[in-house]
Design brief:
globular, 7 helices, 13% strand, Rossmann fold, 5-stranded parallel sheet
């Protein structure tokens, strides 16, 4: 196992490629894969109460090995201290937005494999506004919280080429 690749946390905008990279790293290092969306959302896009959500994530990070992908800043305090590697996608917003719209069209009226059961894909303006505002509103919070809570290796990916380079470097 590549040093530090024991508890990998992947954050970044929707549409950047968190899920795809998480699946690859999970397979490569034989690590359990956790999609936070599957644990957060309940059927028909119902949200859990924040206390039970925080408790759920606290249980998920107790294990010694994992790949966790997803944002959910409300749980940075329990995830960042446990992670050995933080991979953050800092992609251009137009690319992420394009990928989200493409994914929505491709998925149609069903749930994605990385999503909770009963959460059918939908066209939601608030979601697309979130993706558009991510680099200025949400992304900076990752770095701010990481400076306070994270002690491992930070990898920032700014383009699909960076993802490719990372995967190539892990193969050596």
């Amino acid at each position: 196992m590549h040093s530090g690749m024991k508890r990998i946390l992947i954050t970044g905008s929707s549409g950047a490629g968190k899920t795809t990279l998480a699946k690859r790293l999970s397979q490569k290092y034989d690590l359990p894969l956790i999609h936070l969306d599957q644990h957060f959302w309940q059927a028909n896009w119902e949200k859990p109460d924040l206390e039970s959500w925080h408790s759920e994530v606290s249980k998920l990070v107790k294990d010694d090995k994992w790949v966790i992908e997803g944002n959910y800043a409300s749980t940075f305090d329990v995830r960042f201290p446990r992670a050995t590697t933080l991979i953050h996608f800092d992609f251009p917003r137009i690319l992420c937005l394009y990928r989200c719209i493409k994914r929505r069209i491709k998925t149609g009226r069903k749930a994605r494999s990385d999503m909770a059961e009963g959460c059918i894909e939908r066209f939601e303006w608030d979601f697309y506004k979130y993706v558009w505002s991510y680099p200025v509103k949400h992304g900076p919070r990752v770095f701010k919280e990481a400076r306070k809570l994270f002690k491992g290796k930070l990898i920032i990916l700014k383009s699909p080429e960076d993802v490719h380079k990372l995967e190539e470097s892990l193969n050596h």
